[in-house]
Design a protein that fits this description.
Layout lengths: L1 H38 L12 H23 L7 H30 L4 E2 L4 E2 L1 H25 L3
Antiparallel strand pairs: 1-2
Length: 152
């Protein structure tokens, strides 16, 4: 019973840490997607890839935020050294980034075509695509990080 409560607490903290990391990632994506195209006009559509630099930069911001939140609040240290743990975290995050970029491209190109008008804010197709990609990849992230990285 105690292990179940600990697991539920850990999942709750993972969701909170993931939510905060997602806020950082989505916020930085909004900023990057507004400013990077002024510097690099092909950012909007680089050979069929939409917002590649904005996605990469914002995902890096989210990954770094998530790493620190994960080690401070979510997971206990595993059997790995801090250096190896960080390297594994970055490796898993790199694969997650590739998946997230792929899902973003699919969502942006084929699924989300119209704005979603919320009462106080309108979500553009690129923002909706980014949010959907983050949600999809976060499920995989929890499982892999728990089993492989922080397996203590």
């Amino acid at each position: 019973m105690r292990e179940l409560l600990i697991r539920q607490k850990q999942i709750l903290f993972f969701i909170i840490a993931g939510g905060l990391s997602a806020v950082v990632e989505i916020g930085s994506f909004k900023i990057f997607s507004m400013h990077v195209p002024h510097i690099f006009p092909r950012e909007i559509n680089l050979h069929g890839v939409h917002y590649p630099l904005s996605n990469i930069f914002s995902t890096a911001c989210g990954i770094i935020t998530n790493y620190f939140l994960s080690i401070w609040f979510v997971f206990e240290r595993g059997k790995h050294s801090k250096t190896r743990e960080f390297a594994y975290f970055i490796g898993v995050s790199f694969v997650s980034t590739l998946l997230s970029l792929g899902f973003f491209q699919i969502f942006y190109s084929f699924v989300f075509k119209d704005n979603i008008n919320l009462i106080c804010y309108t979500l553009s197709p690129e923002m909706i695509s980014k949010i959907a990609a983050i949600l999809l990849v976060s499920i995989l992230n929890y499982s892999v990080k728990k089993k492989v990285i922080f397996n203590g």
